[in-house]
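Lab notebook: predicted structure, single chain.

Context: the supervisor wants predicted structures on file for every construct in the current expression panel, including those that have not yet been purified. This is the next one on the list. No modifications to the sequence; it matches the entry in the shared construct table.
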Amino acid sequence: MRKDKAMSRNLYVTALAEESGKSVITLGIAEMLAHRVERLAFFRPIVESAERLDNDTELIRSRYCPHLAATDMWAVTGEEARTYFVEDDVDGLMSKILGKYKAFEKDHDFVLCEGTDFSGLSDVLEFDFNARVARHLGAPVLGVVSGRDKTPSDLWDTLLAARESLDNAGCTIAALVANRVSEEALHDWKEQRTSHWPHPEPIYALPRVRTLESPTVGEIREALQASVVRGSDASLYREAMDVCVAAMHLPNFLKYVREGTLVVTPGDRSDVLLASLATVHSKHYPPIAGVVLTGG
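Prediction complete. Output recorded below exactly as produced.
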């Protein structure tokens, strides 16, 4: 691992695989930096569209970097990046990213960078790309791995492999974060961290929080292009943490009701609909997230 003596003025957050939850990590770091530096900037090498920022980038811009124009926060679109790759002109792509980054780096105290989303390239190619961008920008890397569905042993293997990959890629490693870690693995983490991690870089673990990874009722409504029959605007922000297809008789259906359940049922099942609505006011059943009516 290369070590820079001077304190860095930037950080590159990148996932080591898809669905690691790196956006949550990036948001948390932005919140911390906002209280420590006066002129904070945010940069992504690639965005999917030039017409509209993705929700995560727009949230960070509006909350922490409102002085930045949306076009300043990224270098190329996904389509432009794919053209560079097809033409085997990765050096040209890196040159454009570096040029865009340097154009506004000098005007800020710290630049927080977020890598790509592992959607369109193979994991290996995308990792290599992010490592190369971080080196070109001179940014230490905060690597994020997913701890979801991993045993304690699997989690340690994942972290050690991530550290080795970043080190072999010539990156300066700021830290590694394991996200969505189970209670079992988190307990082992606290007990065995010293013996399992012989390296100098700091490592952190964040527990799995169901509400953070669950879609809201409003997001599901939008994806289904459904109409709201009844419900307040606030109810669309409820997290749907489970799904129950209520095709059974009512007594059996009630056995499957959990807090945050999204009930899917035919529109002519008035018994299921009434029972679902009653859970919101019942002291004996947990409140559901919402009901999706099918069949017109």
